[in-house]
Amino acid sequence: MGRYISVLLPVLIMTKPVLYDFFATWCGPCRLQSPIVHDLAKKLGDKVDVQMIDVDEHGDLANKYSISVVPTLIIEKDGKVIQRLEGVTDAATLESLLLALI
């Protein structure tokens, strides 16, 4: 299951894909996206690092990634942004993108 970022730590370059789910508690579409991300995190296990980031609590991180729409999903590998998805993304698309990086 995804982890909620509660403190900002220095970013480590991960060799496995990292999925950042930028969301807000007041966001209707985010309520649709979150279960998709959680289910995928369970399915892929430790092959992917999933981070749930509340934009209201972590505005500085949202600014770093230029988040202007929620939900926004960002996939990184080896410290580089590979894919940016704005709006709700279906499970099959998201799984396909991540599996290609494993």
What this model shows, in words?
Residues 1-102 form the Thioredoxin domain. This protein is α/β, with parallel strands linked by helices and 102 residues long. It has a single domain (14-99), classed as Glutaredoxin, CATH 3.40.30.10. It is built from three helices and five strands; from the N terminus they run ββαβαββα. The chain has helices spanning 28-44, 59-64, 91-99; strands at residues 3-4, 18-23, 49-54, 72-77, 80-86. It has a five-stranded mixed sheet with strand order 1-3-2-4-5.
SSE diagram, text form:
Layout: E1 3-4, E2 18-23, H1 28-44, E3 49-54, H2 59-64, E4 72-77, E5 80-86, H3 91-99
Parallel strand pairs: 1-3, 2-3
Antiparallel strand pairs: 2-4, 4-5
How many helices?
A: 3
Class inferred from helices and paired strands: alpha/beta
Using only C-alpha atoms, the radius of gyration works out to 12 Å
Write out the CATH superfamily name.
Answer: Glutaredoxin
CATH class: Alpha Beta
Name the helix and strand elements from N-terminus to C-terminus, one letter apiece. EEHEHEEH
Q: Give the biggest sheet.
A: 5 strands, mixed
